Amino acid sequence: YLRTCLLSSNSRALLTGGYNLASVSVWDLAASSLHVKGELPCEGLSCQALAADLDDNLIFAGFSSGTVRVWDLRNHSVIRDFMAYPNGAKSMVVKNYNIWTGGLDACLRCWDQRMVKQLQEYQYESQIMSLTHSPQEDCVLLGMANGQQWLQHTSGDRTHVVGDNGSTVLGLKFSPFGQWWVSVGMDDLVSIHSMPTGMKVFQVPETSSIMCCDVSSNNRLIITGSGDHASVYQITY
What we know:
Layout: E1 2-7, E2 13-18, E3 23-28, E4 35-41, E5 47-53, E6 58-63, E7 67-72, E8 77-83, E9 89-95, E10 98-103, E11 107-112, E12 117-123, E13 128-133, E14 139-144, E15 148-153, E16 159-164, E17 169-174, E18 180-185, E19 189-194, E20 200-205, E21 210-215, E22 221-226, E23 230-234
Antiparallel strand pairs: 1-2, 2-3, 3-4, 5-6, 6-7, 7-8, 9-10, 10-11, 11-12, 13-14, 14-15, 15-16, 17-18, 18-19, 19-20, 21-22, 22-23
């Protein structure tokens, strides 16, 4: 079954991965009819997280086995595998040459994808369920199993709490200009927070837990996914 999906930054492709699937599927959203245009092989692995660097045609996936795999999107070949987590990477983001991963061991790790070398490691008290990086500043936002949200600066050890939902945070996403972010999770709420304080600007209730979220590149749409449906919200300024 599907566990994770990723919309490309140009909105022309959708990546989907999950448990006991033979591949990560690449869907063509620009074609006249929806179809799979490529398969990224991962036989025997269960995908938990996806990230992409489309400038270099690279796709990244974190698996429950602890493996992180890198593919070349042009020919679907495996570039490399490396062991990132003993319990699997639950969430992942890519910024420049760095891969940031968070997992159930409550540890945030940063890897240099060129050398497959771990550069930084930050230990937290709660499991890391979701990650998003700021498009404007050198920081990564973490969503925790205990409901807290932490802003970790990537150039040093500075970190601080910027929110507490009171229940598990399952999805986070910065707006394209970094002025705000959206958080979703087990509290059945879509919450918008201002940067950098984390103050809640507004909230929208849904009828069940919200598993994931995304923000459109034009800064005007928020997309959320729940167990049996997806919702699209339009933002007016």
